[in-house]
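The freezer alarm interrupted the setup, so I double-checked each line after restarting. Inputs confirmed:
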Amino acid sequence: MRVLRVGEDALLVEVSSGDEAQALHAELLRRRAEGSLPAGEIVPAARTVLLDGLSDPARLAAELTSLRLPPVSPYARETVEIPVRYDGPDLADVAAHWGVPAREVARVHAGTEFRVAFCGFAPGFGYLTGLPARYDVPRRATPRTAVPAGSVALAGPYTGVYPRSSPGGWQLIGTTDLVLWDHARVPAALLSPGTRVRFVPVTGSAA
Amino acid sequence: MTDRALAVVRAGALTTVQDRGRPGHAHLGVPRSGALDGPAAALANRLTGNPPDAAVLETTLDGCSLRPRSTVTVAVTGAPCPVAVDGRPAAWGAPVRVRAGSVLDVGAAFSGVRAYVAVSGGIAVEPVLGSRSTDLLSGLGPAPLTDGAVLPLGTPGEPHARVDAAPQPAPPDELVLRVTPGPRDDWFTPAAVRLLTSRAYHVSPASNRIGLRTTGPALERARRDELLSEGMVLGAVQVPPDGTPVVFLADHPTTGGYPVIAVVRPADLPAAAQARPGTPVRFVAVRPRRRLSGG
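Predicted 3D structure, all chains:
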């Protein structure tokens, strides 16, 4: 674990794997909930957790170096089920990358237990991990100018669901009608770091 | 009649509703947003008797014109500019009474970029995640003002401040930004780190609420591999592939994949909000006030 200084009142804690980053994030959230970690923002990412709005970053940095991480409990969070039609325009390309028939993409993807590693890019956009490394796919060579809201997409080791229409270079494998972000709802974001996710295949317009 | 509303006669180039933003949601991908020149917005609220978290208008270079439907007290702060009510000159940086149906004109800034217009009662659009700020990166909050739009106003609380004119810092002729090196200064050559603090940069016209972009020599990276996405802070000096530093302002993305060579002290960012394109930028390396043990 490396603790890097970020300006006057933030720290970036760097670990060696995505799993470790998720365990660190869970432990930091636990400490904040019990009142022993005053932090304005706790922002997990691929291999780091950013702690912002700290009153005494120097002291916290010293404490963090002796932090022991308990493993992430698989039962700590609820599971969100996302109904999905596996009808994306890049399904055939993804199947080719994986070296499997197109229908096999849906079977593998829907059979995977995902976890939201972190959010970013847009409010409510989660970077979901869970697929084995052999299923990593590159981004598309030319990004689309408009990816429809509800698109279920893959890039690198991640799965994501576009909360609203936006430009994007991810490989589109399906569509959901579930609303990922609604600022009038509590909570606004369906997915937050640590949420477990399963994709449930549906056919027709019921997704 | 007590129609607490404000009609937009002339929206200007870019006028948005801003308050102190929505910090605390970065883990969901929600930018902090909020007034870029926080002290100017706070002063405008104080002058009109508003609480410090009331929403104000943030204009860009050419001001705006507004017609309140009830009699209000307004104050214009930030970028110095002509202020007029029904064509008659009025005070900048002081409380001004505007009668129902009169037109307040906030003119083009003499210097600086962003003027703040507080109206007694505050702009009372529906808050999103606890803030009325327009976030231009993610589209949260009210859309930028358009001609003919009508904004609801809240109920005035305190009487306005009894001052003739409040002192305000002048927009910078040279933007001095104190930076703490890191967290990714080791991704750059030692020469690049020296170059950053060599007075060679200017404010780029491509700057916006997301970031203060710069023009100047490219900063050379010592590492060619890709940085995985990591959390970003306000004031982060991020270096995209073209090598010219970008200082993250209020609407910055919450995560990013380009290395951050240094972080600007938050106290220096209000001046960045008022620096016009072409203004020289001087990055000055300072040590954190509290050092990490052993580092």
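Quick read of the result. The two ends of chain A are 42 Å apart (CA to CA).
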